[in-house]
Structures are given as structure tokens and as C-alpha cells.
Amino acid sequence: MSTSHAISADEHDDLTTHFESTIARDQRIEPRDWMPEGYRQTLIRQIAQHAHSEIIGMQPEGNWLTRAPSLRRKAILTAKVQDEAGHGLYLYSAAETLGADRAELTDKLIAGKQKYSSIFNYPTLSFADVGTIGWLVDGAAICNQVPLCRSSFGPYGRAMIRVCKEESFHQRQGYELLTTMMRGTDAQRAMVQESVNRFWWPALMMFGPPDDQSPNTEQSMAWGIKRHTNDELRQKFVDMSVPQAQVLGVTFPDPDLVWNPDRGHYDFGEPDWSEFMDVVKGNGAMNFERIAVRREAHENGQWVRDAALAFAAREEQETN
Ligand code: BYC
Q1: Measuring CA to CA, which residue among 115, 133, 114 is closest to residue 124?
Q2: How many domains does the chain have?
Q3: Alpha-carbon distance 103 to 101, whole Å?
Q4: In degrees rounded to 5, what are phi and psi of residue 258?
Q5: How far, in Å, from the CA of 139 to the mean position of ligand 1?
Q6: How far apart are CA 262 and CA 282, in angstroms?
Q7: 71 C-alpha to center of ligand 1: Å?
Q8: Is pTM, for the whole model, over 0.70?
Q9: Which top-rank group of organisms is this from (predicted)?
């Protein structure tokens, strides 16, 4: 049920009822369906942030492309970074189905008016970070994104299916890299542990603020955009990661991390939420550089956009 004309209050009520019953039946909302403006804006916000994260997320690992220790590792890393670019473009397309303009979204990112995941504002200081990002960052992303495959908005849910398949491959890639390093020298093992120490807490922050400080969760869950709260997913990630760390032979830097038989989950310490807020506000170690690099790439690509538009205009002229 779509509308292209101004609607009366009665029509609005009917459309709202239809929308709500579609959500209640757990059926999908598609781009041409009528939807409340708040639903559309929430999706644009989340999908744009997600797309920006994928694009900005190419930088921390891209930092190691020229210094990968072997041709094999370089080829794997190149493919992985390229996959992230694909996810970003896929997600910008999903945002476009909601009426968002891709160029405007990029402008907002570059102007610091739209967010991207806090995790990418931490530096990658050693090659072990490539493995840790694959294992923990892609691992956290999978925990968060698998439920998004059932998101109520069709194009977002469908995009997530492909993205999750690739992310799960990325996670195994990271874990395999770390396993190889752990079978190496003492210095390599120390490098892995040091990397895990730096990334553990920021990975937990990827899930967003605690539920009692998350302004968007309740409404997003009512709309079937999010399927779990931030804390539920954070717990799932901790429970999943601890046995993997044991097999790998590393520890997490949290003295409060302990199995709780009553809850059937691991208890864990509180992330430093003031650090999270600081990073989200733009004051993380790498915020400035990440945006500066993105801006430069965008400016350097201007001639490609100009050429593509000129080509399209000439084609149109020739057909008329
Ligand atoms: N970083 O009410 P809340 C990847 C913001 S990339 C920054 O809980 P919501 C990969 C939040 O936006 C994976 N900001 O919000 C790529 C909100 O601010 P606004 C990226 C954060 O939306 C390359 C405010 O805090 N994944 O996998 O209900 C290489 C309050 O939060 C963060 C996605 O984007 C954060 N961590 O829930 C490797 C997944 N957390 O907008 C890997 C899709 C929260 O009100 N997104 N904020 O000003 C989501 O699932 C949800 O948007 C979130 C937050 C769970 C992240």
C-alpha cells in the first residue's frame, strides 16, 4: 500500500493500522509500502551508520596491506578489505530504497554529522590486530547482524544475509591467523595477547550503550528493526568468545569475567562508557584521521563522478 498524494487523517489511520498489522504478523515492509516517517528515519539512520562503518572500517586493516608478512596474507587481507567496501555499497543501496541520497549520506559522514562504529577509531598497531579484528570485531558484527537478517525492512534484512556470510568467513580468517601466530614464537604469542588486550573492551562497546541508556532500542524493537537489545547481544558475544579464547590460549583483560552457573552465562565487567561516549563524540585516537582519509578519497574520486555523469548525459542526448 503506497501513497504519492497528500493523505487525509482517516487514510493515515488506515495506513498506520495496516503497517502495524504487517509488523505484528512479522511480515516484511518493502520500499513501496507506506511506512511511518519515524520508521523510515530510524532505518536511514541505522543503515547509513552501518554503511559508513563498513567503508571507514576498511582503513584500520588497510593500514597493513603493504606490510603483510607474506603474499598469501596480503591476498587474504586485500580480499577481506574489498568485501567491506562491497558491504558498504550494498547498504547505501538499501538506504536509497528509503529515499535517502547516497551523495548526501557521504557528505554528512565527511562533515561529522553522521556516526560510524566506535571500533574503527582505535589504531592498528601490529599485524596481530588484523587477526584480532577478524576474530573479535567481525565476530561482534556477526552477533549483531545475524538477527538483523530478520529485520522488518526487506532490503536491509536481505542485504544482511549476504553480509553475514562474508563476515563469518572473515571471522574464521582472523581466528586462523591468530592460531598460526600462537603456534609461532613467544614474541608472536605476546603480540597476539597484547592485541587482544587492546581490542576486547572496544569490541564490547560495538553493541552500543547499556540498555538503560539506549534511547533507540525500545522503539526499534517494537518496529522489528532490532530483534535483541544491546546488552543481550553483548552477553551472547561474551559467551561465544570465552571458549574460543581458551582454545586459542589467550585471556581477556577483565578480572570480573567468570562463569555464572546460576545464570548460565559469563559475568563480566563494565566497559568504560565514558571512553565510549568520548570516541562517539569524535575524540578517539583515530577519529580525525579516519574522516580526513575518507574526505581525501572522496575528493580524489571527483573526476570519476564527473566523467560518469558526463557520459550519462551524452548517452541521453544521443538517444533523444
Ligand atoms: N559506535 O540507542 P542506541 C563491520 C550510537 S561494521 C558509534 O543503542 P541503536 C566491519 C547510536 O547510533 C559493523 N555509535 O542506538 C566493517 C545512537 O546515536 P544516534 C557496524 C554508536 O541504533 C569493517 C546512540 O549511540 N555494525 O562489521 O538502537 C571491518 C545511542 O545508541 C555505537 C552496525 O552498524 C557504536 N558502537 O543501536 C570489520 C550494525 N553504538 O544515531 C567489520 C547496525 C551506539 O541516536 N547497527 N551508537 O545519534 C545497529 O545494530 C545499531 O545501530 C547499534 C546501536 C546496535 C550499533
Answers
A1: 133
A2: 1
A3: 6
A4: -150, 145
A5: 15
A6: 40
A7: 34
A8: yes
A9: Bacteria
C-alpha cell at 195: 592485541
| CA 225 to centroid of ligand 1, rounded, Å | 13
Could you tell me if residue 123 is inside a domain? yes
Eight-class DSSP state of 283: I
* Residue 123, domain extent: 16-317
Whether 74 is covered by a domain: the verdict is: yes
Does residue 6 fall inside a structural domain?
A: no
Q: Hey, what's the cell of 237?
A: 558475544
Which residue, 197, 255, 224, 213, is CA-closest to 27? 224
pLDDT at 39: 98
Grid-cell match 586459542, residue found: 248
Q: pLDDT of 30-46, one tens digit each?
A: 999 999 999 999 999 99
| Mutation test residue for ligand 1: of 77, 116, 214, the one with most atoms within 8 Å of CB | 214
Q: Say how many residues make up the chain.
A: 320
Do 118 and 280 meet the contact criterion of CB atoms below 8 Å apart? yes
CB 246 within 8 A of CB 259: no
CA 125-127-132 angle, to 5 degrees, is 90
